[in-house]
Amino acid sequence: MQDQFQRKIEYLRVSVTDCCNLRCRYCMPAHGVKKLRHADVLTYEEILRDVRALAALGVRKVRLTGGEPLVRRDITRLVRGLKEIPGIETVALTTNGVLLGTMMDELLDAGLDAVNLSLDTLDGGTFFSITRRPMFGAVMEALTRLAEEERLTVKVNCVPIMGVNDEELAALAAIARTHPIDVRFIELMPIGCARTENYRGVPMDEVRARLKDAFGALLPVGEAAHEGAVPKGPAAYVRPAGFTGTIGFIDAMEHKFCHTCNRVRLTAEGFLKLCLYSSAGLDTRALLRGGMSDAQLADAIAHAVWQKPEEHHFEIDQETRDHRAMYQVGG
């Protein structure tokens, strides 16, 4: 499946809920958010029907997000159902890790292929300051288990924030020194609380400079090592000498990678979102509940994806900007 700019769309991010068991300051207000009505959220059967249509069109990877996806009941049933869809090669999960330790065995049994752990600090006090919740121990237990789990591809996602965790960047990156884990530093996006509360991200060039000072030369790996190569994802990876894993940088603001974007997003309410910035998309819930056939659903999705915007415009405030918060779209 291609859009009008000849980008091959093969990656779907599915937000299964907008609820979360943390209250990270750059993501969600302290009082939480109004919970979606049960009837407004896609059922697992509806999600699977959407994914079957997308898989028939060429989507090969599905990532479950939230909110926090593990707070949704019976999430392993959805993982198992996704793995059974012809064409789906990888089912991944992005999680804060609070519930992961107690659920990992059943997720593995269901066929989960990969986990991205969101982790912005290795300090319990800073963790509480960022998340407003005393869950640091559970997350560290999950990290320990992930570092030893050979059946999963594991990545750690960190958002560098000025004056919050910027002094820990080298310590976080060092997770990849002794473990086959990709530690990725993700630029703070001007969405939701990150925008309204005026948090300042650490420029990614500064992150690179600090890590170079700590570890020496940051040697490119993967596509980044080959001049002119088109990356398969948003991260540019490096491996300092002596590292088992890699360090990745995702800086959508400083260095746009829209020309290689291969993804669409499905919100918990069933809106197929074509771009993180734009409000453009397709209400699949209305189609699913309106009696549309599978063939008609696939046609509608293909038509919508063809109109995927060429690039984001976070650097300017336009009427086309989507004002959903990050927890509502799954990142």
Characteristic terms for this protein:
331 residues, TIM Barrel, twelve-stranded mixed sheet, globular, 4 iron, 4 sulfur cluster binding, GTP 3',8-cyclase, lyase, EC 4.1.99.22, iron-sulfur
Question: How many structural units, i.e. domains?
Answer: 1
What is the distance, rounded to the nearest whole angstrom, between the alpha carbons of the first and last residues? 22 Å
Low-confidence stretches: 226-231
Largest sheet: 12 strands, mixed
Helical run tally: 12
What structural class should be given to the helix and strand makeup? alpha/beta
Shape: globular
Strand order of the largest sheet: 7-8-9-6-5-4-3-2-1-10-11-12
CATH architecture term? Alpha-Beta Barrel
Strand percentage: 15-25%
Percent of residues in helices? 25-40%
| Secondary structure tally: strands | 12
Q: What is the CATH topology descriptor?
A: TIM Barrel
CATH class: Alpha Beta
Name of the CATH superfamily = Aldolase class I
InterPro entries: Aldolase_TIM, Elp3/MiaA/NifB-like_rSAM, MoaA, MoaA-like, MoaA_NifB_PqqE_Fe-S-bd_CS, MoaA_twitch, MoCo_biosynth_MoaA/MoaC, rSAM
GO molecular function: 4 iron, 4 sulfur cluster binding; cyclic pyranopterin monophosphate synthase activity; GTP 3',8'-cyclase activity; GTP binding; metal ion binding; S-adenosyl-L-methionine binding
Pathway: Cofactor biosynthesis; molybdopterin biosynthesis
Catalytic activity: GTP + AH2 + S-adenosyl-L-methionine = (8S)-3',8-cyclo-7,8-dihydroguanosine 5'-triphosphate + 5'-deoxyadenosine + L-methionine + A + H(+)
